Amino acid sequence: MHEPLSGYVRKQFPALKRQVNGHPIAYLDGPGGYQVPETVIQAVTDYLINMNANVGDQFASAQDTSAMIQNARRIFADFFNCRWEEVVFGANMTTLNFALAQALARELTAGDTVLITEIDHEANRGPWLQLQDRGIRVEDVALNVNTCTLDMHDFQQKLSSKPKVVAVNYASNGVGTISDMPRIIQMSHDAGAYTVVDAVHYAAHGPIDVQKLDTDFLLCSAYKFFGPHIGVLYARKEILSRLRPLNLRTQSQYPPFMLETGTLHHEGIAGAAAAVEFIADIGRKFGCDPQASDAEWPGLRRHQILAGLRVFDQYEQALTADLIAALTRDVPQVTLYGPPAGHPRTSTVSFTYAGYTADQVAKYLGRRGLFVWGGHFYAIRLVERLGLLDRGGLIRVGLAPYNTQTELDRLIQALKAEDALQRFAATLR
Description:
Helix 2 runs antiparallel to helix 10 and helix 10 (266-287) packs across helix 11 (300-330). The protein folds into two domains: 5-36 and 302-428, Aspartate Aminotransferase, domain 1 (Alpha-Beta Complex), CATH 3.90.1150; 40-275, 3-Layer(aba) Sandwich (Aspartate Aminotransferase, domain 2). The chain is an alpha/beta fold. The protein is globular, with a radius of gyration of 22 Å. The mean pLDDT is 95. A hairpin with a 4-residue loop joins strand 7 and strand 8 (149-150). The chain has helices spanning 5-10, 38-50, 60-80, 93-105, 126-129, 152-158, 181-190, 210-213, 237-240, 266-287, 300-330, 358-367, 380-385, 405-416, 418-428, and strands spanning 19-20, 23-24, 26-27, 87-90, 113-117, 137-141, 143-144, 149-150, 165-169, 194-198, 217-221, 231-235, 334-337, 348-353, 370-371, 373-375, 394-398. It has 15 helices and 17 strands. Helices cover 41% and strands 15% of the residues. Strands 4-12-11-10-9-5-6 form a seven-stranded mixed β-sheet, sandwiched between helices. Strands 13-14-17-16 form a four-stranded antiparallel β-sheet, covered by helices on one side.
């Protein structure tokens, strides 16, 4: 028998041993980036000790680096359910999306339309808005501010302009809303558009199957699910091979290499692959039938990844429900912002606290070892549409598999102590 999930998981993370002002740190900032397990740290260290070289030569460390990157592509192919030739690595999601937008722009002409949304992170808005300099029209799909969901009627109306690209997030890093991605992609394809999915926030919370989604492109960031700070892109091979991205004469012009400008973040790739393997390890230990043999699991690593993500989601959803209930019941100063009950969501809970800015509350909680975010989290249009940008934005609590009910109890007690918050806020003036 294995230990309960939370006990096993927490032992993997050295960062959880830290304290601030005598308080153990509760990392409640998951949407900003997860902490890193020991196996990922070891993978990065092993690369730097034993393989640190550039690719393209015949000596051992260069060959080992090439083999590591190729293995990482195969691991992420299992993560996405795609071919290894469709896995592109980059500095971060934003940089990859800029490169993708510039490549797709060469397929567009002045007057063509790109659809983005008001719920998206700026990394899936800014690269497309930049194309307006080329005469390309960029239209916004509206946010329903009452439900913090996309206005699907408005989306349907905007599709009548026959956009060439539709860029939309899978889940909102600002309020946790999960959008109906299969429907959005199908509607977009029916209108003749390429689809670009920002799965940065979603990737830590649910399975990704690019074959079932039938999307053309999908982006994520490894540091959002236990890895180092690198970006990863799924790019449909048949489409990527037709594009003309900005790159160098010396660069391979074939997928997936044609979008990977310059030397890659090799140690980051090693750590990112280990992060996916960490998810698979949880699937093996807690999500798979212990009586089944490996031969009974088709696509073994893929099966384990899916099982691990299901285990994490079940654990996080229970904590999320408890947190929402406690905030609603015990902290009347709080106003919650997010999808309605029953709508798919991640374990991200955002709110305001009457009388105080998000920054004041985040600083107050941080001094108590409760690390949350305050502001717009780069989902600036979302926060603007909610009417909160000029008021300091939102307080965001994002739960990860290493968080516990005890940490949430600490959070609720700190928020209930308005007199302590008032005294602390006074010191900031």
